[in-house]
Amino acid sequence: MLTVHHLGKSQSERIVWLCEELGIPYELKRYTRDSVTMLAPPDYKALHPIGAAPVVTDGDLVLAESGAIVDYIIAKYGDGRLVLRADHPDFAQFLYWFHFANGTLQAGMGRLMLLNRLKLAHDNPMLVATKARVDRAFDLVDARVREAEYLAGSSFTTADIMIGFSLTTMRYFQPYDLARWPNVVRYLGRVGARPAYRRAMEKGDPGMALLLS
Ligand SMILES: N[C@@H](CCC(=O)N[C@@H](CS)C(=O)NCC(=O)O)C(=O)O
């Protein structure tokens, strides 16, 4: 049985969402962050040497890293759904946005969160450059979802699932005013209305306000 180990308010919400979109059987185990450090608790850290969410177990397999887990679940249980094949005209877009989500947007927001915690001067060059790069990432997403319904094009794919956390729940840790990016807000309205997203959030983080605007 596939088990999704979900750390509250974390990137593992992607995996719960993916399982709900696919409608596959899975067991959900929830863990709570340490209230002071906000880090994963010891029993979560013991699951995998990296000690970070998400982690899934499936039989003897223990797998971490969002992208790897998403690809694993799609390959084993997806039956061709939520991905574009290499012969699809939007295949390269799909790949780009799938990897952009964690490789650029989430990485940038994480760096910004840490720099902000250092209480640097507002004109600190690293802070200014990092903020500019995250703004640029939001600009790119906004332009993409102005021209396309979803990141890969007309189909909802795992690229949308990968980016969801950074546009929403991540803003509990690194607040980001989306006023400058109205197409991102409209896009969040589209994906945030999906029944599978609603179910996943309610199962993973019951009662959490969804940051969709
Ligand atoms: N690139 C990794 C990032 C993993 C990561 O940083 N997870 C955070 C949750 S958002 C975490 O576990 N934080 C708690 C901790 O490090 O103890 C992935 O996508 O799986």
Q: What does the model show?
A:
- The structure is a single chain.
- This protein has 213 residues and is of the alpha+beta class.
- It folds into two domains: 2-82 and 198-204, Glutaredoxin (3-Layer(aba) Sandwich); 91-193, Glutathione S-transferase Yfyf (Class Pi), Chain A, domain 2, CATH 1.20.1050.10.
- The chain has helices spanning 13-22, 42-45, 66-77, 91-117, 125-147, 158-167, 182-192, 195-204; strands spanning 2-7, 27-31, 55-58, 61-64.
- A four-stranded mixed beta sheet has the order 2-1-3-4, with helices on one face.
- A hairpin with a 2-residue loop joins strand 3 and strand 4 (61-64).
- Helix 1 (13-22) runs parallel beside helix 3 (66-77).
- The relative contact order is 0.15.
- The model has no long low-confidence stretch (mean pLDDT 98).
- Bound molecules: glutathione.
- Glutathione (GSH) binds at residues 7, 10-11, 39-40, 51-54, 65-66, 102.
